[in-house]
Amino acid sequence: MEQQLIVDELESKLTVCDNIAETISQSLLQAETLKQSILKKAFEGKLVL
Fold first, then answer.
1. How far is the C-alpha of 12 from the C-alpha of 8, rounded, in Å?
2. Dist CA 5 CA 2 (whole Å)
3. I want to staple 41 with a disulfide (CB 3.0 to 4.6 A). Which of 3, 13, 26, 46 is the partner?
4. Gap between the Cα atoms of 3 and 20, Å rounded
5. What is the mean pLDDT of each run of 10 residues along the chain (49 residues)?
6. How high is the pLDDT of residue 47?
7. What ranges in 2-49 are assigned the alpha helix state H?
8. What is the pLDDT of residue 43?
9. The dihedral sign for the CA sequence 39, 44, 46, 48
10. Is the Cβ–Cβ distance between 6 and 15 less than 8 Å?
11. In whole angstroms, what is the distance from residue 28 CA to residue 22 CA?
12. Alpha carbon of 12 to those of 7, 9, 15, 24, 33: distances in Å?
């Protein structure tokens, strides 16, 4: 019984970890897209500070 509680808790934590990893992955893709957009504008002379 106690072992099942431990397994359930670990599975819950692993699910949270998986969700965090997915969020990080999506954020990295968005950051790369933004970087490319900024570089494109910079090379086109359209980057205004």
1. 6
2. 5
3. 46
4. 26
5. 96 98 98 97 88
6. 84
7. 2-43
8. 94
9. positive
10. no
11. 10
12. 9, 5, 5, 19, 32
